[in-house]
Amino acid sequence: MSTAIIGAGVMGETLLSGLVRAGRRVDQLMVGEKRPERARELEERYGVAVVSNREAAAKADTVALVVKPQDMGDVLTEIAPDLRAGQLVVSLAAGITTAFIESHVPEGVAVVRVMPNTPALVDEGMAAISPGSHCDESHLAEVESLMSSTGKVLRIPEKQMDAVTAISGSGPAYIFFVVESMIEAGVHLGLPRTTATELVVQTLVGSAAMLRETGDHPVVLREQVTSPGGTTASALRELEVHRVRAAFLAAMEAARNRSRELAEGS
Ligand SMILES: NC(=O)C1=CN([C@@H]2O[C@H](COP(=O)(O)OP(=O)(O)OC[C@H]3O[C@@H](n4cnc5c(N)ncnc54)[C@H](O)[C@@H]3O)[C@@H](O)[C@H]2O)C=CC1
Ligand SMILES: O=C(O)[C@@H]1CCC=N1
């Protein structure tokens, strides 16, 4: 089964590299990429064929669209004449609905919407997938196989996609923001930057492993760290005073709303 990736920026390369790591034959992969220098970079790095979008659409069994939501309409209009019934189109774009894609492609083309995230680069990705209206089990299984090469895959109803985008799609950025803030705090408290970075990164990795390995609720794990009258309680009180929990809620609502706006083309 050949797969084409149209749009090989951050997320397109993440998918491509994951497929290569998972042992997909490079001669079964193709890339369509607008920027010539980026295309050359990918050819050199992976030995993958970079072809026109139309050639990619005509030749591949599965066409993964990884361009920005704002570019999706133009790309679909460009490749529609080359698509045929029986092919699978997979969109990784925020906001873009399966109905929008189906309205641009020929009858009989199956569409699956995916929301991945960048930890896929280290095979710890979280991808949610939703079927369009002409999908069967084999199409969902194919997308599960594509995405499970780089992490976990969850099937969800499409109406949850904007919320999923706000939580796991954008999620790594929030975590990196917290990490960055803690490192800066360490420096402010007088630690060398390298020391602060090592402390924060290992604390994050250790905490993530505890969540996954114990299966305990985060509240339980937080309470274990919070000694009565101790340092953690003092810090958590400040986070509540500064309304950090409310800020997280507002931030994720904003991301969900932006995903909805992208669906409307703005
Ligand atoms: N970066 C992330 O963490 C995530 C991104 N996504 C989705 O992935 C998509 C791509 O995002 P990024 O990779 O971050 O953006 P990006 O800007 O790094 O990549 C987009 C790529 O598409 C190429 N491109 C644009 N128009 C094209 C065309 N007509 N034909 C061929 N290639 C074309 C650009 O040259 C660029 O290399 C977006 O729709 C985004 O919503 C989804 C989840 C996470
Ligand atoms: O920021 C964005 O729009 C994309 C979608 C989810 C993560 N990055």
From TrEMBL:
GO terms for cellular component: cytoplasm. Residues 158-262 form the Pyrroline-5-carboxylate reductase dimerisation domain. NADPH binds at N53. It is found in: Cytoplasm. Pfam families: F420_oxidored, P5CR_dimer. Residues 4-95 form the Pyrroline-5-carboxylate reductase catalytic N-terminal domain. Coiled coil: none annotated. One of its GO terms (biological process) is L-proline biosynthetic process. It catalyses: L-proline + NAD(+) = (S)-1-pyrroline-5-carboxylate + NADH + 2 H(+); L-proline + NADP(+) = (S)-1-pyrroline-5-carboxylate + NADPH + 2 H(+). Pathway: Amino-acid biosynthesis; L-proline biosynthesis; L-proline from L-glutamate 5-semialdehyde: step 1/1. One of its GO terms (molecular function) is pyrroline-5-carboxylate reductase activity. Keywords: Amino-acid biosynthesis, Cytoplasm, NADP, Oxidoreductase, Proline biosynthesis. Its EC number is 1.5.1.2. NADP(+) binds at I6, G7, A8, G9, V10, M11. NCBIfam families: proC. PANTHER family: PYRROLINE-5-CARBOXYLATE REDUCTASE, PYRROLINE-5-CARBOXYLATE REDUCTASE 3. This is Pyrroline-5-carboxylate reductase. It comes from Nocardioides oleivorans. The lineage of its organism: Bacteria, Bacillati, Actinomycetota, Actinomycetes, Propionibacteriales.
